[in-house]
Amino acid sequence: MYVDAMQPALVDEVVDRETGQTSSALDLLPADLRQLVRDDNLKLLQEIELYDREQTRLARLATETADCVVSSVCEAPHAKAAVAGQEGGGGGNQLIKVNLPMEHAQLSLVATRLIINKVLSDNANSKNLDIEKALNEAAKIEMHRLEDLSKNQSSYVDNRLLHLMVYMSQNGLQRVQGVTQRVMLEQFTPKCLSSEPHTAEFRKMALRLLGKCPLAEADKKLYSEIHCDYSLFRKTVTCFMHGVEFFHKEKYVESLSYLAQAFTMNQALAAKGLRRGMDQQLIAYYRRQCILSLNNAAARQFESESPRRAALVLQQLDDLLIPCLVQLNTSELSDDDLAAAEHIRNKWCNFLGQDMDPEKQETLQHFLSKLLDPPSSEVRLRSAVLQQLRVQVNTELAKQFSDCMKLVEESGFLERAGVGRS
Questions:
Q1: Fewest CB within 10 angstroms: 1, 97, 201, 296, which?
Q2: Can you give the pTM of this predicted structure?
């Protein structure tokens, strides 16, 4: 046990009854023991200093481990697509700066701890455990588990949500050895693994190996792209789930904000490959049904409400529906999108022959001018849904998506959307 004599609060005081003087318990020790305590105190301070230096070095290494893109700057696709996100009053393209490798490593924290514990248990009789060898063994076990996940798809679960390596495998990206090795080692580098001595050793070794094996120049772009795409895929799934939830609660304004955002982000992913994102037809079907439902509800409100309330209804459609109509008008997924756009235009044109308040009539004509001649260029959807998304633990997101897909199938939307699931 160490006693720090330089901190009086940690040393009990003893009062001499005859003289009334106080002295520390340390002063009452024999000279040889007193020197031993002082030597131990000095040793402890040196160890603390060395520990702090090492932790500072490891923290710096953790932030530099990806050479090129540990702090990954991904330009959000929604900033340039037909329906774009807009924060506050700001315009223009937006940059989202996040530490994606560390974020994705955190997602597998539970599995990482279990694997480390298994390896340590298997080597319990080993007196001098080779940490590098143990780490390689843990990585090998994890790779086998992820390969099985990649091959096994159920009707409701998308295993890509369980791990970045599954996403890579299903997109044929695991063949690049340098990138695969780095992603696997990153799984063992979250800072919280330093809280326990046995996991801290694995983290330290993983960081050391990452420092020794920098990515080849040719692999850096792919590495960055994989992390950005996986992050975007998870945001797309989260937006879709929120959109479906609100749709079935008949909250069409909230639903369309999420579904339109999901469609735009997924469009950017689908352009790179079918398994980069979700099934685009399913998102498009829900978006189309939500647009029609919102339009019908707005038409009923416009007909029955006062001129002032009717103007607010049309303003809401101007903010939300018009940008989505641009997507429908340019849709190549289904003729149903074009038919839906035509149905919406006809519904509002039919109001022209009806008797109504002059103020209402003026508001309607202003709205029709935008509806019948929507801009063909970029239109911004006034939505801040991405600001509301939180990073979810992978098992939580996978389970929520599973529940969402059960609702989609039970409601008959999966079949109506014409989605074939493997």
A1: 1
A2: 0.76
